[in-house]
Design a protein that fits this description.
The chain is of the alpha+beta class and about 240 residues long. Helix content is about 25%, strand content about 25%. The chain starts with 18 loop residues before the first helix and ends in a 14-residue tail after the last helix.
Length: about 240
């Protein structure tokens, strides 16, 4: 420590170091000593922000320089957080190795080779009583995966990325592994999902899948929110 060039002391004299100067010199010596033994580049928790300060990602603290950060790493808060993190990682490692209860379940996505689109036939139909218009889909899945049944769902035009969204249309999707998913473009009319109106059936012997879709009439769509009016046509 330089004593003779301290402010207020005579040339060649020692002078008395103040408490703040002594503490600053001690921190500097500790910093240099720590830098010789600790490689900050290998510290996963140190981060230098855009204003040149150092942040501890583990404790969420900010430090003026690397010396202050090194002093923080030797403190109780940082050491306690390190111990907690090590204990948590050890527990998670045991859970994964021994398949203990509470283990996070990871769904593995299967990479199946698609074999193309199934054959299909579409027939226009009309209910003889209610005069509802509809469609009957017949799809053939001769190479369907054993134990798999085709799945059906309706998708709005705003969910797909193939065509420009048009609120006047919707899509009927039929999926069955290992075939590609089929999408049929329909009018954006409300589907009658009552029993006997909308149904799906898979013949496991012939590997044919049937889907019937009937649309509600204009009257049913108009008065669908009025109790007793909309279902009346289906009770004849």
């Amino acid at each position: 420590m330089d004593h003779q060039n301290r402010a207020g002391s005579k040339f060649g004299g020692g002078g008395v170091a103040s408490q703040s100067s002594t503490n600053a010199d001690r921190r500097e010596r500790l910093r240099k000593l720590a830098l010789e033994n600790i490689d900050l580049e290998k510290d996963p928790y140190i981060f230098k922000n855009h204003v040149g300060m150092f942040e501890c990602r583990l404790c969420l603290t900010v430090h003026q320089n690397d010396g202050s950060y090194l002093a923080h790493t030797q403190g109780r808060k940082h050491q306690t957080n390190l111990a907690r993190r090590a204990a948590r990682e050890l527990k998670e490692g045991k859970d994964k190795e021994g398949a203990l209860p509470g283990m996070a379940q990871i769904q593995v996505r299967r990479n199946l080779v698609k074999i193309g689109r199934p054959g299909y036939k579409i027939t226009k139909i009309r209910d003889p009583l209610t005069r509802q218009n509809g469609l009957l889909f017949q799809l053939q899945f001769p190479e369907i995966t054993p134990g798999i049944k085709p799945r059906v769902r309706f998708m709005s035009a705003f969910e797909q990325k193939v065509d420009d969204p048009d609120k006047s249309y919707q899509y009927l999707l039929v999926a069955a592994e290992p075939y590609e998913t089929c999408a049929f473009k329909l009018q954006a009319r409300e589907v009658d999902r009552r029993e006997g109106k909308f149904f799906e059936w898979f013949d496991e012997d012939s590997k044919e899948f049937w889907v019937q879709v009937l649309f509600k009439t204009e009257r049913e769509e108009r008065y669908s929110g009025v109790p007793g009016l909309a279902p009346s046509m289906g009770k004849r």
